[in-house]
Amino acid sequence: MTSTWLAVLGAAVLCFAIKLLGHLVPEHWLAQPRVARIAGLVTVALLAALVGVQTFTSGGAVVVDARLVAVGVAAVALALRAPFVVVVVLAALVAAGLRALG
Amino acid sequence: MPAHPLPAAGPDGTPEDTGRAAARTRVIRQAASVSVATGVYGVSFGALAVAAGLDLAQTMALSLLMFTGGSQFAFIGVVGAGGSPVAAVATAGLLGSRNALYGAAMAALLRHRGPRRWAAAHLTIDESTAVAVAQEDPVMARAGFWWTGLGVFSLWNLFTVVGALVGDALGDPARWGLDAAAAAAFLGLLWPRLGGRTAQLVAACAVVVALALTPVAPAGVPVLAAAVVAVLVGWRDPTPRLGRPAPGSVTQGDAP
Q: Where do the segments described as Disordered lie (chain B) (predicted)?
């Protein structure tokens, strides 16, 4: 089994275990404001970091390229309440278009 | 699951029954629209997973077995950036941590045991929780949870396969702007969660930390390090601005 398969299955088991944990433990354990606050903010931090890394990095270096324009267009589309799929396709079109133009 | 578990109450039904039936129709319609809207962007997940170097079976396994969109996108993001498998698993797990909170709220609502509880746990995601807590009546909340969970699960997996096949046919991901599409996908998942000042601050700090660490840390680690920002801020901040999923508070669902 390759390491990618191990990671896929390991991550799937972990994510299911987290869901099941919520269903099994007494509700008040997880209902504390601090726990809820940290869980919410961890989600925000990880997604924001992924936006940053996916937009500005390439092979371990910080770079600025067509992706920045594409993500800017995506942000405008999100502000205008465009559906998720439209936002993603729009970003791809902008980046692909800019690269085709050189 | 039966669409009409209520016994028929005569040819016309009592007014209460017709009210119930109308409420049920409304819940199912809500569940269907959420399922379609969410399921369709399984296409982007499938295409991006293949672009990140996963094969069709691995991509399908993620949607079938992990089934929590934010974690799935994060997993392929870390793998695609050349991160270690451990970093990919850790990032996916951390992003899935909010599902434990949803699970606690849904367990209190559903009160299932055995296999049904396991099935409910697997279907516990942003969307099923959001539709459930949006209902005023517990019976409708349960219906909303199951219809949305099953609807998103079916369509998300179907469209994942479509996306993976399309992505495979495209070839070089960068030529088609798929790297930018991945960034936009993360932004789309983040956007509805940026309501509060605290969230905006944490997001900004997370980007700075991740980019500052990128040249010096192995791929995958900068993203994980950003989570530390959230723990530090969340530990100190006394104002519960990002509430637990109590009724009405889980409205930011944009990922399965």
A: 1-21
Taking the CA of residue A2 and the nearest CA in chain B, the distance in Å comes to 11
Q: Is position A36 within any domain?
A: no
Q: Give the structural domain span for A23.
A: 1-31
Contact A62 B215 (CB under 8 A): yes
Residue A2 lies in a domain: yes
Q: Is A63 on the interface with B (CB under 8 A)?
A: no
pLDDT score of A7 more than 80: yes
Q: Tally the domains of chain A.
A: 1
Q: What percentage of chain A reaches a pLDDT higher than 90?
A: 75
Cα dist. A81→A34, B86, B127 in Å? 31, 36, 18
- Interface check for B171 against chain A (CB to CB < 8 A): the answer is no
Query: To the nearest whole percent, how much of chain A has pLDDT over 70?
Result: 99
CA distance B256 to B254: 7
- How far apart, in whole angstroms, are the C-alpha atoms of residue A51 and residue A74? 11
H-type alpha helices, chain B: 15-40, 42-51, 56-61, 69-80, 85-95, 98-110, 114-122, 126-133, 138-170, 178-190, 197-213, 221-236
Gap between the Cα atoms of B165 and B163, Å rounded: 5
A49 Cβ under 8 Å from any chain B Cβ? yes
Mean pLDDT in residue range A83-88: 90
A15 in contact with B, Cβ within 8 Å: yes
Residues of B in contact with A25 (CB under 8 A): 104
Predicted confidence at residue B16, as pLDDT, reads 65
Q: What are B186's two structure tokens?
A: 């993360």
The residue ranges of chain B whose pLDDT is under 50 are 1-11, 240-255
Sign of the CA dihedral B127, B130, B134, B137?
Answer: positive
The answer as to whether A81 is a domain residue is no
Average pLDDT over residues A26-35: 80
ipTM above 0.90, yes or no: yes
Predicted confidence at residue B170, as pLDDT, reads 84
Alpha carbon distance B16, B31 (integer Å): 23
Domain regions of chain B by residue span = 15-196
Q: Are A7 and B82 in contact (CB under 8 A)?
A: no
CB pair distance less than 8 Å for B66 and A16:
yes
